[in-house]
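During the first year of the project, the team set up a workflow for recording each protein of interest as an amino acid sequence followed immediately by a discrete structure-token representation. This format lets reviewers and collaborators read both layers of information side by side without switching files. As required by the reporting guidelines, we include two representative entries from the current panel. The first entry is reproduced here exactly as it appears in our internal archive.
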Amino acid sequence: MDKNSDNNFLKTGTTTVGILGKDIVVLAADKRATAGHLIVDKNVKKVMPINEDMAVTIAGTVSDIQLIVKYVKSELKLKELKTGRKATVKEAANLLSGINYHNIRRYAGIGGVCHFLFGGTDAHGQHLYDLFPDGSITEITKKDGFISSGSGSVFAFGVLEDQWKPDLSESEAIDLAYRAINAALQRDTASGQGVDVFVIDKKGVRSAGQKLLNTKLN
């Protein structure tokens, strides 16, 4: 995650994970923010609730992310007040992907790069989307089961590919999220300090806590 604010683009460093289980979405991320080779923050919240039913993992330029998340929260609340109903997860994810589309083109590739994993619950069930910095949006289906982003994702994907299975229980999905992020913490210098995990089910969004991980899990 890049906290650089000048016009010299720095490679985003972070690891985020989204997992679909049985009637559940788990979102997880590490807690380190970097600027080049410098660790500038060791306690970053990279999983952010949007409302009581939706949350995102974040990777990219901090200032843009903070502003975009505030904007999406406001737009969803306004939509609810105007229409008398809550936005679906698909509607909210499309709103965010549209912002990404315009944001990266405004900066012409110099900055404003934001990558989100978007999870939520609505009347149609639980949903998980990958919102790429270029504005593209991909729904992660139950057949796919998981997604990861950031510089440590190559390590997280190895664990996810090997250990994910359909209809994971809540405890199994949380444990897999910890293991996937921890694999990145072992090898990716831009990811570190620990793991935040959030759970989304039909009751809404809640924190599953955090762990400080720096060793192999048994």
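The second entry, processed by the same pipeline in the following quarter, appears below.
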Amino acid sequence: MSHKMTKWALDRREFLKLAGLSTATMALLTSCFGSNMNTEPVAPPIIEHSPISPEIQSINDLDIKIGQMLMVGFRGIEINDNDELIVQDIRDRHIGGILLFNYDVAQKSPVRNIQSPAQVKKLVSALQIYAEIPLLVGIDYEGGIVNRLPQKNGFPKTVSHQFLGQKNDLDLTRRYATEMGNTLKGLGINLNFAPVVDVNTNPNNPIIAGKERSFSSDPNLVAKHAMEYIKGHHQANVLCTLKHFPGHGSSTADSHLGMVDVTETWNSKELIPYREIIHAGEADGIMTAHVFNKNLDPEVPATLSKPIITGLLRQKLEFNKVIFSDDMQMKAIASHYGLETAVHKAIDAGVDILVIGNNTGDFVPDIAAQAFNIIKRLVQNGAISEARIEESYQRIQQMKRRI
């Protein structure tokens, strides 16, 4: 299969119109990236179809592709045929990924999926058995405070991004990241939702600075440490996801709890780590932020914004790999948009994988089925094209081939 896209060039005014960016915002971006940036659209990767086993070749091809665009969380520390919900999600809806947690917010329980190294390894192996196309198994394993594999459960000690940035020893960052990558590999986890490349522009930020998740207030230092962090994981054949695009470091609130407006605080230098890591070829995937910035999009937060996801990240920064949403159940999205509207807007914006952690507020057992049916209905009624689904499917399979 091949993708063909007519090349076209945009002058600055045309790009502004396409991306919905103000002249003032473009001035900020130009100062950050220079005036001769390529603004041609980035075509989807040219790759062959992912091999699908003979057993499922007869299944509706569209169902497989839609399922691959979903990554969901579930409750349980072990799995078997009797766990009909998650098993059906994997086997019948072909969901592409699983997200693991060590704490169940809905039940206020310390156990969600993580109990011990041996238990996690067994759980991941059992989940993969049901998958015709191998699963992406993701986890938030940043180190320090945000760490789903705690030392008290028998996992190695980790340190925060802030600790590593303050030490400012790239070899030390690589060593810690290599150990973390080896830990994940030993468990069968192939995707880390890290490193955080948010720039620490607001030291009072409750969710980034407050949890020691940023390497530095210097975007170039953030980029350098993030690349060493990624390389350490790559040594273990574990992929990484940069977050949270286009930048959460300047926020004054937590998007888990509600809408976060960074219009007055965001700065274009928050894009520098993305630019550097993408151009170095080290960006495996990127996660969106549920932040609102009216200078980038006056209507919706970044996760749902075509000007930000397609216009800025795909076209301006030339990123052509997998884009993950942040958790679609976080209140910044769920409190303002119905599930169907949010799913539609996120896919239309350019998101490839919708992450649904099912770990905030009320647990929704059939959330994967709901999202799957919404996407299928949107395709059937023409609101989303099959070609758009194909673009994401190809990017996802390209990522999976690497692991």
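For the second entry, the following points were noted during internal review. The longest helix spans residues 170-187. Confidence is low (pLDDT under 50) at residues 1-20, 35-59. Both points are flagged for discussion at the upcoming steering committee meeting.
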